[in-house]
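Notes continue from the previous slide.

Worked example: a multi-chain complex. Inputs as given:
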Amino acid sequence: MDIPLLVVVVDLFPSPANSVAAKGKLDSGTVERILNQLLVFINAHLALRFDGRVAVVAAIAGRGSHLLLDSADLSNASTDIKNTGGMYKQFKVVDDVLVQKLQQLLDFDRDSEENYNKQSCLAGALSLSLSFINRVKRQHTDPASTIQARILTLSVSPDSPSEYIPIMNCIFAAKKDNVIIDVCRLLGNDSVFLSQTASSTDGIFVKVSDVDNLITVLLHSFLPEPSIRKTLCLPGGTLTNYSASCFCHKQPCSIAYVCSVCLSIFCSRRDSCSTCGSSLTQQ
Amino acid sequence: MIDEDEAQTGSNTGQGGMYHWEAAYQRSWDALEEDDSGSLAAHVAALAREKLARRRHVLALSNSAVPVHRGLIRHQFLVLDMSEAIASPADYLLPTRLECVLHNAQVYVDHFLTVNPLGCIGLIATRDGGAEKYTELTGNTAEHIAAIQNKSNREPRGEPSLQNALEIARRSLLHVPSHGSREILVLYSALTTCDPGNISETIQSLKADNIRVSIIGLSAEMRICKHICKETKGIYNVIMNEQHLKEVLASHVAPPAVESEKTASLAMIEMGFPSSTSFASPTICANHGKPTQIGYECPRCKTTICSLPTDCPICSLTLVSSVLLARSYHHLFPVPPFVEIPVSHRTSHFSLSLAAQIQLIVVHVKWHSLLHQQGSGRYQCPNCMHLFCLECDIYCHELLHNCVGCLGGSNH
Amino acid sequence: MSTILEHIKTLDNNTLTRLYHQPATCLAILRLLQPLAKHIIMRLLFVGAVEMPVVLNWIFDTKQASLAEALLSLRNFNIAWDENGSLIINQVFQTNLKNALVGGGNTSSFGLPTDSKDKKDITLEYLDTYAKESWETVLHFLVGTPSEKRPTAVVTLMEGSGLMAKPAHSHRPEDLRITNKGFQFLLQDVNEQVWGFLLQYLEMSEQLGMDPVDVLNFFFQLGSLEFGQDYSVDVLTDTQKQMLEDLKHFGLVYQRRKKSSRFYPTRLATSLTSGVAASGDTGDAGYIIVETNFKVYAYTTSPLQIAVLSLFLTLKARFANMVIGILTRDSVREAYNNGISSDQIKQFLTNHAHPEMKKELPPTVVDQIKLWESERKRAVAAPAVLYQDFPRSLEYLEAVGFARELGYVLWSSDQKRMFAVTPEGHVRMKEYMIRKKQQQQQQQQAV
């Protein structure tokens, strides 16, 4: 019996870079609408199975990544359970905790303007998620069941070249751990790194521009757990660009020169490697 | 657990400076300690922790903080001693010496090719006083594993010949381009060698051709092996038990540091990054001569090949996938080893920034509380000052190769 | 678990729709359905209706059979059906499942926690002990341990469910004896047992004129409650208040006094729809170790557990904290005679296996248990008519060929020139024999 563990990485907090990437559509109202639909999606995941488990990791530019919620550890949740408004209690508690934590983070963020210039920390959030999954797996001792973990990334932030290597490291670790990374790209901009992430880990990559219909996409494409994906047709399968991009101009190239010491890629011959500093003879 | 005990008692020369065979027989159950309620749980947990701590120690040794130049393009011949010596009984290698060694060789080949995506490995076996090549140098794991699993290849016969094996490996390695490393790793069970000529000459030519020979002894130390390794700048190990064999093999997986005097042989290599294409009708793969529907096209000469990485058989361009290249990047930008902080310093040590503290509370304390209660140490990243538990420390260094704290960017 | 689904399937559409007025019920049923059906519901939840061709495209072509199966079960539960070329979701179900997910609507479906603090502190341990004791009392009654307390609700339910029966010529309730069904019941895990009782209760309640919708809703509501929380009695319907009274005897809920305005669900109740073992975290961990030499060590002092073990074990020794028994051919055959199957024994040993041997039972033991079962099935009795003493091989072959063609042959031996046919076949065979005889006579006359 597999216990489904879903880790949601939320990367949609306002920062100048994100706003540009989202073509100015990322205001606090939109974020709120997205998060509300995310809450419904999380509840739907928990509704499918009594033993379903959810964790949420927030990636905030310049402020690092934070584990906001782990549905298996809500002991210290301070929530008014008397008034669940007709909701199933577990759902209500999860929602309350998440909303409260997000509010804290966003409030904190507003106070420190200088953080706005920082780049995204998606790789950090993915690393944190993978460490978390690793930890959950280690602590799971019941031999009768296994943890079937996957990651869903809701992202708007643009690719930052400095994150290429950490993201690649995450891909390899995820593959080794059998973790699927799904990507839901919001507000219509593309991301080469994340599409590579999804296709390398057997996840799906979907772009959503109509935020108000996000919930249908989430329920339709991202709810099915890996075991049932053999049966359900899911979107994706667009060709992923695997060609290398050179370190010097970030241009994609199909034939390139590679430093034999550090494997840095350059689009033209050169005498020394700018990454590792070795002077290179030409062959 | 039994492994654990053996590993402890087996460390170097056993207790009190005595050799392993001089010491009294160690019963693994004597080492167990019961707590007040007669339960072994605490002791077992302690053993597990110790094991983790040792793994961490090994990792910390192999991962230095400063990125060193490493030869990432490796060419290695793995020499297996398939003489009758490998059929001799060994109570430290279970179920039998042969099974254990071949199984570990298989694991090693797989691990090696995963960690060194541009590396090639070849298999040579020595038996009947000669040496035969099981597989050519290639990056295809399946081929090697098939060769190891082949029944007729697993049959121990006659005497081993160190010189023959080294000569065959040397001759094949001569064709390897100079920018790649040339290595030989020998898994040697016998205590003799049956050579046709003077092995010193072979050693000299190995030295001249810049080939590094490492030997893992599976029984006792041999002077000739030690000498070969010393001359060719390799490493000589004699293993004590299976656990140790695994550790030694694992230490050979990471690419060795390149010495500065060798920089002359560094070079820019021209490589192709073919994109995957699916063909309307099956096309013959130029490498294996088998029809294939999904494959890659060499970007220079448009030859069809079925698997990466490989050299284009027509224009000899090295063909790799960019994702494969990325797999070795963590050698360039390693996660620095974390500093252990004793439990007693728990409160006095904090001089962290506010952001880091919040992060610490939110991220770690909650799901690490369990281990901390058990008295495990904590580990701190020297760059971002974040604290990690043992489990996450190992995960960061062994598999993930990212430091969660550093990527958060709060202290940079 | 599956049995409750089977039961719900038999309800008519109106009842089902009335059932779906409670979000708790919708959620519980969703969790019980097969995975594909769950996802179809989720996809319909915010859309309402989807055209059939689109639905067909959701599934890979090779897996269309499982889609058909999922759609059929949704149809049976009156949750979604094909109408005018579209797949339509039951609106009541849709509204109430949505309510469960996002809030709104009926506020007491998941139970109404009481506002005030209980005067006396009811701890989780207390509830666990209470539930365990009550449930074991019921089981003790079943195995016939003498006890003074016998609530009528329990007695009637036992008899009604056929777990116990009175000997043919007795009418006193003390004479109730455990039946074969009762033996099988003992080997099930607690969750299955509770559901078994509840289903029985459901059937009886219908005879008593209780509304099955009310009863079912209360079951599912209990399953959604939180262990350790006290809930208000006031919002329950009269039927449900009556049920509360009855379920108390089984240890599913706890009420301090009969007129108390609050009740506590126990773990037996809260784990109803969760599928996890209903036992508490502590105490009831596995206690059985099975060795490859068929010896069974059970670390238990409970007379109930020992009684259950003795159903299929020959008990050899009893110590302060454990009993030792051996699985023998005789003891296991005895169990088979009581109607217990090898799967049930295997299931029981696995469910209660000691943590140290949680991974699997010794294969030798499992195989042998299976073999002992199959050897009972070596001979099958059936009424038959035997044909023998055929004078010539040809005649025998013709006759057996004829019978075989019609599928009447139960057994045949070419060597002995004998075969047996079913009684139905005997009629046809007689006709055949007469015909044959006539043919022979005609031939002889012709000669």
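Summary box: Chains B and C do not touch (no CB pair under 8 Å). Chain B has 13 helices and 15 strands.
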